[in-house]
Amino acid sequence: MPKESIPNFEIPNEIRQFAEQSFDQARKAFDGFIGTAQKAVATLEGQASIAQAGAKDVRQKAFAFAEQNVASSFEFAQRLLRAKDVQEVMQLQADFTKAQMAALSEQAKELGESASKAARDAAKPTG
Q1: Are 24 and 85 in contact, with CB atoms under 8 Å apart?
Q2: Tens digit of pLDDT for each residue in 62-119?
Q3: H/E/C letters for each residue in 94-122?
Q4: Which pLDDT tens digit goes with each residue over 23-61?
Q5: How far is residue 123's CA from residue 49's CA, in Å, rounded to a whole number?
Q6: CB within 8 A of 100, min separation 6: which ones?
Q7: Which of 92, 86, 80 is nearest to 20 (CA)?
Q8: Which DSSP state fits 36?
Q9: DSSP secondary structure string, 55-106?
């Protein structure tokens, strides 16, 4: 499709400001949620054992990955709000999708390795 046939795409300033305010509020709410969730998990972690240590490592990684993925999504949303035209929106979407697929693949690999290590450590005889 020739570039001339694509209509110019602009977000009105009032809508952009409202979206950015909503974005900031959502980010603050998420940060509060993560903080509360981490405190709750820390409170629930009882006595230390080899199995619990491995599970704790997996939980911590899963939390970190979730936080990283949501932060990436927020950054992507913010970039979309600032996009100047449809082509930029499409490029941002393609870049985000590619980056997220790579990140999710690496995260799955790391979680699998951590879970395997935790299972091996728990199966080792103590003492």
Answers
A1: no
A2: 888 889 989 999 999 999 888 888 899 899 989 999 999 999 889 888 888 888 887 7
A3: HHHHHHHHHHHHHHHHHHHHHHHHHHHHH
A4: 778 888 777 777 777 776 666 554 445 566 777 788 888
A5: 12
A6: 69, 72
A7: 80
A8: H
A9: HHHHHHHHHHHHHHHHHHHHHHHHHHHT--SHHHHHHHHHHHHHHHHHHHHH
